[in-house]
Amino acid sequence: MGHCILRFCIVHKLIDDFIAMNQAGLVLELCEKYYAEDVIMLNNGKVFAKSMRESYDKQKGFVSSIKEFTVELVSKTIDGNVAELTFNYKMMNSDSTLNEFTGKHIQTWKNDKIIKEEYVSV
């Protein structure tokens, strides 16, 4: 039973760190730190990436276009190895275009890495 409690605490700490990194705008760094090499990522039901490197490369251009951002955690639910995180995003692009949206990340964790993440616009 102690092992299960320890695993529960570790997963919670990893998810809290993921949240903090996301709020700090460290998208590429959290990609390298928390996504499994063979992660499957979905964006509104469509495959976005089939590996950490593909995800990193796709997000790199997007991240470089952001001038200012605010990321607010709306909700966090953890059930076993599945985390459901909802964030409000407010981002100012380098061309001064403001994008505001809410997104839900449904993550499946295994061996301290995200093996599957589904992003859904809400």
The helix-strand sequence is: HHEEHEEEE
Named CATH architecture: Roll
CATH class: Alpha Beta
Tally of individual helices: 3
- Rg, Cα atoms, Å: 15 Å
Q: Can you characterise this structure?
A:
This is SnoaL-like domain-containing protein. InterPro entries: NTF2-like_dom_sf. The chain has 122 residues and is of the alpha+beta class. The chain has one domain (1-121): Nuclear Transport Factor 2, Chain: A. 35% of the residues lie in helices and 50% in strands. It contains 3 helices and 6 strands. The chain has helices spanning 2-23, 27-34, 52-64; strands spanning 35-43, 46-49, 66-79, 82-93, 98-110, 113-121. It has a 6-stranded mixed sheet. A hairpin with a 2-residue loop joins strand 5 and strand 6. Helix 2 (27-34) runs antiparallel to helix 3 (52-64). The longest helix has 22 residues, at 2-23. The chain is globular and about 45 Å long.
Tags for this entry?
122 residues; alpha+beta; Nuclear Transport Factor 2, Chain: A; 3 helices; 6 strands; 35% helix; globular; SnoaL-like domain-containing protein; NTF2-like_dom_sf
Secondary-structure blueprint of this entry?
Elements: H1 2-23, H2 27-34, E1 35-43, E2 46-49, H3 52-64, E3 66-79, E4 82-93, E5 98-110, E6 113-121
Parallel strand pairs: 1-6
Antiparallel strand pairs: 1-2, 3-4, 4-5, 5-6
Helix pairs in contact: 1-2, 2-3
